[in-house]
Amino acid sequence: MIKVLDSFTADKIAAGEVIERPVSAVKELVENSIDAGATQIIVEIRGGGKSYIRITDNGCGIAPDEAETAFLRHATSKISSVSDLDEIVSLGFRGEALASISAVSRLTMVSRTADEATGIKLVMHGGRLVSSERTGANTGTTIIVEDLFYNTPARRKFMKSDAREASAVTELVQQFAIYYAGIKFMMINNSRTVFATKGDGDVIAAAGALYPDIHADRLIPVEGDMIRGYVSDPGTTRTNRKGQFFFVNGRLVDSPVIEKGLTDGYSGRIFSGHPLAILFIDQEPRDIDVNIHPGKREIRFLRQDEVRQNITDAVNAAVMSGRGVPEAFAVRSAPEEAPAAETAKTADPSENAQRSIRDYLRGLERPEEAVQASRDASAAAAADAVREEPAQYESISHAPFDFSELVFKGYVFDTYIIMQGEDSLYVFDQHAAHERVFYERFMDGYRNSTHIPQPVLTPFTINVSADVYLSERNHLDGLRSMGYDIEDFGDRTFIVRGVPEYMTLEEADGFARGWFEGSGELRGGMNETVRDKLIMRSCKSAVKANDSLTEKEISDLIGKLSECGNPFSCPHGRPTFIRVTSYEIERSFRRK
Ligand code: ADP
Ligand code: MG
Description:
Heat Shock Protein 90; Ribosomal Protein S5, domain 2; alpha+beta; binds magnesium ion; 3 domains; single chain; binds adenosine-5'-diphosphate; formyl-coa transferase, domain 3; elongated; 20 helices
């Protein structure tokens, strides 16, 4: 029998869509506080948020006669018609959060507006009003959510352990604290303060207060079309993406499009892991689809190729500049997440090197502004404080790295070349540099040659192991398409009668051997990327190992490297050279 659900049941089902876990309730409530113009937000949870969530803000508050209305489904003060939907600037607009959360918990709200002498206290159980009374209160709103999903046992089962739920909430509040660096955040878990930010508007300091590896002197400013922010040099990465924060029009989002754009921007310079990034992306509201799923952070861009390309270009300009050369003292994988309490201590914003980024930051148009502009009158004071600062746009220089300023200073361990630049010395790894030079020459040659083999006077043979022989004998097309004249010669042997025109005989020999060594695991459709990878691996074998270079050879190598499209890393993503700043040296000698 088909029947229309009563509204109570319908509410509980709908609530499940918006509120899946404690972290989704916290997200909605904090967004409400931000929309209310709060400059201070305290988030407290117990039992992973399952038993207790408290959000206290100093925002505009809710008038007593509107308090009950706020809990009705589709009750919102933020839009009034469909046409407003295209121009949404507030974080909430569906008017569903309070209705949903109150339907599946025991909720208490205390709120007072600035122009009322007393506030109001509402208690709701499972969406039903239990009590409503006037009460003394500070300006702002406190919402306490207890026993989440107490009346929906099926939902409750899907929640993870207290620790997992608590860390999801903490992570979320950290992300808010970074984006809304102008708002003071405090996070309390089981009566312990996990972190507190200053709310002074300094994004990097806020990020650094939470994550020790986000450190101003390691981040490179990024500026491009509709995008700005910071990324780490390719040597500073994490094993997961937790050091990446993407904001679109004030909303923290998850986006494979942005991730792809970011990764591509490094053009293969990352050896392992994921770079750190804080990216602010602006889009016309009509170019994004915020309506995919109310509970998720995923966003859909209507011009996604353009967005991805803009990100790639901006990140690429930043990491290909001189600032993208990994610093010697920073070349290591960033530590995994340190406990937040410990990280709070390491936040020392007084460091010299942070100043330049902070200056740069100050010049940025605050991303919060767009949102703040839409806030009600009580938010105006906070917004003005931000606007008061004169907008000084400092242009960041992304001049390409200047090899011509380098002066040869020495050669150590038969491997490392020391060069001096204006205020830094650079250490080149001759093998990594060689690989890069070979790789680009081969790729260029491959793309531009006729692929007609150059016959060799004396054909040579290549012996391989039985397994390689069996797997490769019917797959010689890859090498042929590069310009090899190669055939199965029987008995675990291949014979080469012609080589690509862009390789010397010696290179062609080494390359083909490397190809066989590395090909097994990558064998698949011979598309362009598989071939790229094979070339990348094979050219390693073409590089001379442990050779002591003459000064002439060194200057040839550096010269060729400087002509590469990406001189900064070998094809496997290892740096070709690193930088030691004079500042670091002086600091090590305690001169600074
Ligand atoms: P939405 O945020 O989509 O409008 P909600 O259900 O989250 O819907 O909130 C309903 C309304 O309650 C909001 O539009 C706002 O007017 C009011 N409100 C909710 N939380 C707060 C708060 N912390 N401070 C002031 N007003 C609030
Ligand atoms: Mg809301």
